[in-house]
Amino acid sequence: MNIVQFGSYPLDCNCIRGGVESSVYGLANALAATHQVDVFDVPRIGGKDAIESQQLLTIHRYANHGKYNIEATQRLDDILRDITALHPDVIHIHG
Question: What is the model's pLDDT at position 26?
Answer without folding.
Answer: 92
